[in-house]
Request: fold
Amino acid sequence: MIELKSPGEIDAMRAAGLVVAEALTAMRERAAVGVSLLELDDVARQVLHEAGAGSSFLDYHPAFAPTPFPGVICASVNDVVVHGIPDRYRLREGDLVGLDFGAHLDGWHGDSAISFVVGRADPRDARMIETAERALAAGIAAAVPGARLGDVSAAVGAIARAGGYGIPGDFGGHGIGREMHESPGVPNEGRAGRGLRLLPGMAIAIEPMLHRGGGDGYYEAADGWALRTVDGSRAAHVEHSIAITEDGPVVLTARRPPAAPPRS
Ligand code: MG
Ligand code: MG
Reply:
């Protein structure tokens, strides 16, 4: 069943989404050569604490995983597509980092992810991240009332494939609200004009996952969580939670633009 959120509930989801946005911004500012993934996890825990919010990820234990998730962030470096467990690994020059973060506030969840390169970027990584962001923007733009879920998936997949990127088939976005993962699933490829009709009050997370190898293969790492590309190619993952409203899509996890520098 898909629960339609009222405008007031969408406002409450935006409040949760702002906590997510703040944590991602704070982690992005902290990430640098020599900083460990656990230190980034600590940054996110601090944001949760200050906001009085809870983690959507900590102790999450889906059927596929052997253990509850131990962090508040997923930190997925280089050939890890998603679901990387934050550990003592210290970031190195040129690492491609995906940070995925979920929080709940007053009973509503937000979920968002960013990808970036630490230090000097391989232009191929920069292009893949830029393509993932364009795919996400296209998916969001397609999420208008009356459209079909397949329009969103097709928009994401078309941009990823046009760039020559692989797409891990079994993972994608999802409904979001009182739970982090709700119906419907939001695949990263699909057929325009097909699937669920989008209605005002629906909230979904759209999350393109691209990798530089042309194939779609991935495997589960020994920890049972991290998904790695079979060919070892690097992957990028970006995500926003959005609400479909009468006026079009609203990005619930939009990050505030950086404050303008003071004029001298
Ligand atoms: Mg996420
Ligand atoms: Mg998600």
Notes: The chain has a mean pLDDT of 95. The chain has four helices and 14 strands. Residues 7-251 form a domain with the Creatine Amidinohydrolase fold (CATH 3.90.230.10). The pocket of magnesium ion (ligand 1) is lined by residues 100, 102, 111, 113, 207, 239 (CB under 6 Å).
